[in-house]
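PROTEIN DESIGN WORKSHEET
SECTION A - STRUCTURE
LENGTH: 175
TOKENS:
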């Protein structure tokens, strides 16, 4: 399966559906953007990891990473592997022979927590990614590290709103 490395670009809110949207962009090549609608709790977990905000107690994805570590293993990478009936599927790659099925939102939160790469199958990108989306990154350093510079949250939110105003959930219909 051919994979492309992805980067978390933003978490926003779809004004039509009122639900959070995770935007993943190809790190190289065509730089397509993959929108993934996620739940509010998952969006919060991803955003906490993006901004390196500590929590008083481990969140679920942090706890899973601790369990993997206590077994003498480490998460190697996460992969968005397929799209079935409008739902994205991912895998946690713990070793070449150990892969665990996961929701994309949980996998991305774990990848950000562990500092490992995120990949998406080219077939998924061909089917569901937006080919020509301009996403303006705010508050990222040259290495793509969120939180390395101050983030103008109102400007970032406005850019996301403009993107979502032009997007329509039917644009991502895979049927």
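SECTION B - SEQUENCE
RESIDUE ASSIGNMENT:
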């Amino acid at each position: 399966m051919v994979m492309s490395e992805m980067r978390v670009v933003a978490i926003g809110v779809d004004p039509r559906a009122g639900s959070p949207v995770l935007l993943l962009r190809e790190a190289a090549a065509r730089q397509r953007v993959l929108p993934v609608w996620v739940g509010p709790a998952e969006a919060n977990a991803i955003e906490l990891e993006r901004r390196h905000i500590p929590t008083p107690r481990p969140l679920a994805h942090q706890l899973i990473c601790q369990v993997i570590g206590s077994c003498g293993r480490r998460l190697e990478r996460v992969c968005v592997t397929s799209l079935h009936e409008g739902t994205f599927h991912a895998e946690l790659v713990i070793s070449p022979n150990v892969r665990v099925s996961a929701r994309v939102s949980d996998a991305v939160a774990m990848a950000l927590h562990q500092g490992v790469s995120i990949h998406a199958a080219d077939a998924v990108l061909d089917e569901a990614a937006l080919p020509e989306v301009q996403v303006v990154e705010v508050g990222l350093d040259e290495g793509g590290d969120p939180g390395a510079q101050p983030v103008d949250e109102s400007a970032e939110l406005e850019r996301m709103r403009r993107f979502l105003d032009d997007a329509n959930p039917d644009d991502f219909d895979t049927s």
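SECTION C - NOTES
The mean pLDDT is 84.
Residues 3-72+120-172 form a domain with the Bifunctional nuclease domain fold (CATH 3.10.690).
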